[in-house]
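Reopening: structure tokens for the S-adenosylmethionine complex, inputs below.
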Amino acid sequence: MFIISDASKLMEIFAPGEIARIYINFCDPWPVRIKWRKRRLTHVNFLKIYRAVMGDRGEIFFKTDNRELFDFSLGQFAQEGWRLDNVSFDLHAGADGPPPWNIMTEYEEKFSSQGMPIYRLEAYFDSREL
Ligand SMILES: C[S@@+](CC[C@H](N)C(=O)[O-])C[C@H]1O[C@@H](n2cnc3c(N)ncnc32)[C@H](O)[C@@H]1O
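Re-run output (same inputs, fresh job):
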């Protein structure tokens, strides 16, 4: 099933616990105005929405070419109490290129072919953990 919608409306589409994992791939960095940061899909306001549709536990896999957005996102996940894992500042580094499990998106192909590093993280929460 494909749904084209605004991420801010996820709670109108999905019930709590219906989503286990969200992939955020190369979302718009909204770089210019400070007040536009609320539009970033990794802003704490969006993280609260994702959490609401995930129920007790959930995970987000996030990739971007934008270092400033990545640094911002690390802070937003930490602020909301998400556990970070597999944080990479250059996903495609190494002699063998990107890991075999990595699925390249259109923007990832575009930016990595220009030699730009790809930033990636996994964020987890489990409200049942102590
Ligand atoms: C730079 S494109 C990346 C496209 C694709 N994910 C890729 O990696 O090749 C950014 C995408 O984020 C989507 N986007 C931005 N804000 C959104 C929001 N609030 N809700 C849903 N999608 C959003 C845009 O529609 C656009 O498709």
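The chain is about 30% helix and 20% strand. The pocket of S-adenosylmethionine is lined by residues 6-8, 25-28, 41, 105-108 (CB under 6 Å). Marking as resolved unless the reporter disagrees.
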